Amino acid sequence: MIALLSGKIAYKGISHIVVDTQGVGYRVFIPLTTFYELPDAGQPVTLHIHTSVKEDAINLFGFYTLQERELFQLMISVSGVGPKVAMNVLSRISAAELLEAISGGNLTKLIAIPGIGRKTAERLILELREKAVKKMAEDQIPIMDVQKKQSGMIREDVLSALVNLGYKSNAARDALDKVAREAEGELPMDQLLKKALKILAG
After folding, report:
1. Residue 155: in which H helix or E strand, if any?
2. Are 10 and 68 contacting, i.e. CB atoms less than 8 angstroms apart?
3. CATH domain 66-138 topology
């Protein structure tokens, strides 16, 4: 099983590259985040590899960082999430942002990724949340800061929804402030919106 691959880039494309290792060319599928970090064709490169073995094919998926490979492997362990979907996720969002979204239960952030529906996003959060929090601790990502950021993102999403419904921005902010003062802990988006609407309706 190939876990690490070093050689020269014989071909460089957006979705895959060919790594020449002592005269043998390996096709490696990559996310955009890895593509942006690659040197030019002809230059040496080292990638962290996930090897996928099927009856009719052996595919290599390469990542510039070990963290990306670990997140890829976590995602494909979730029912309904295959390598194509996982690669698409990592092409649209950084590893740190993905960990934040999963650990914070940010459905909005995940659903915004093309190819990720609500059910898939919910499965990612349900099955990977604890692992994501553990991973953040291992990588020394400040969990409290992430939770605070997620709370702010939810508030902004609700504020935007209220403004789109026709309420004045200042009135909507005041309603959200009142909800925050009365609430015990952080509220999910649907409850925050419901309570704010109740206040605005008088």
Report:
1. helix 143-164
2. no
3. DNA polymerase; domain 1 (1.10.150)
